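## Example pair
The file below holds two records. Each record gives the amino-acid sequence first, followed by its structure token line.
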Amino acid sequence: MQRRVIVCPLIENQGQYLLCKMADDRGVFPGQWALSGGGVEPGERIEEALRREIREELGPQLALTRITPWTFSDDIRTKTWPDGTRKEVYMIYLIFDCTSANRDIVLNDEFQDYAWVSPGDLKNYDLNAATRQTLTLKGLL
């Protein structure tokens, strides 16, 4: 079974949190709302991976003013790749509290939409299991 270390930012701006809607045809949670983030590449340091993933998925204009390691979790998920291949992956999530100075988002093709959401409205989104677990642990759900 493949193992992936995933860096995952919980990004807050003016009391709202960033959610991204996964593409319908790929990823671990197709079509569901999630936190951004992705895998640490060989030879890459954790914070470097976090900043790279944010640039790749959310665009270079999103400016983070704070990055603080918060918690971790793990589970086994089935991932779908763009070519339709599906595999079980042991996922280790490293989750960071982040604050952004702006809301300048440019999504890549991994996501189809995004929203800045107040804590009271998070329950209204079709959150994937990992995001639901993270937000519950944080006391936001």
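Second record, same layout:
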Amino acid sequence: MKQAIVVRTDIGMGKGKTAAQAAHASLTAYENAGPEAQRGWKDGGQKKIVLKVRSEAELQELAEQARRERLPHALIRDAGHTQLDPGTVTAFAVGPAQENLVDRVTGDLKLL
């Protein structure tokens, strides 16, 4: 079991903002998973990987692919209280799910 978290690098988020958006994506995708996937991921050590993209379009494409694969996922939009305009798409997470299924969506991306 694995979860992949993907953040945008083109919008100038600071390190703290990036970490917060990644955390939002991780937790929301976890909440969108079924109890069996949640339990399996937790029991297996909560494996996760953090990756990067350079545009909102790339995150939207990943979200669409996760939808097609019927994988738990989350696309995060910022509330706009600090660094970004309200509604800015900042991050995406897919999983927890079987590692090979997560890799179908994010396997070609580079590490953050």
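Notes on the second record: The longest helix spans residues 15-32. The mean pLDDT is 96.
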